[in-house]
Input
Amino acid sequence: MNLRITKKDGALIAVAAVLLLAVAVAGRLLLGEAALVIAPVLSAIVMLAALLEIYRRLEKGKNMEFALKQYDRKHDRALRQLYHQVESLLSLFFTLKPELPLPDTRAWAASPDLLKKIVEVMLTEKPAFVLEASSGTSTLVIAYCLKKLGKGKILSLEHDAKFAAISKSHIALHGLEDISTIVHAPLKEVEINGKKWLWYDTDRFTIDQPIDMLFVDGPPGKIQKLSRYPALPLLYKHLNNRATIILDDGIREDEKQIVAMWEKEFSPLSAEYLETEKGTFIIHKNAQA
Output
């Protein structure tokens, strides 16, 4: 920003100078020699006031410019993010060719860039059995991937009866009931290493084959601290030797801590963090066959 003196600032200085001259003349007439002491003091006060006013205006201008630059950067990031999500969504539709519109994405649902990554993993690794902690748009996307692959099943756990019913209706609408199973599994207290947690009621479902891919997007973080931690302690024994674990909301500190705990407790695991909208961890189990 060019901090030059404006015409308004020049006028302010001119007025201050005139006032100083008037004070000096009036002081000399009224006070005589005493004006020689008083006049400089008054002059300094008036001039200081004028300079402070100019400085205030300049600072206001700098602050406004800074705020505008911050807004521009934030707006630019938002536009880039929006473009990225639209690009991911188009890629998703082009690859899967769903027969009907998919439910909404972003907000509480998975973001398009995460769904795109799930599709990439699914079509590359070709899992035969996927277990999903939570349900929603991602359930449909995974089911469509399995349909495209020509084999495989997905089992989705949903703690909320309302959302379980919605997910079931979406699966039925898209004709994917033979691929996808939604289980209403309310949260139940479970003990892990002497500590109590809430997780999906394991009595509500049966795992009768190795899990090739585990997608963890629940329970919600507000349920408890490190809400999604129990997934691996409870399901690790069911994972295939080369299983892939995808953890959503990796941008949150809780999820970062969860991954660190998993890596410490279960070996060998290798985790990669992806800069998706909400942050995503892709974790591979590298056990020997």
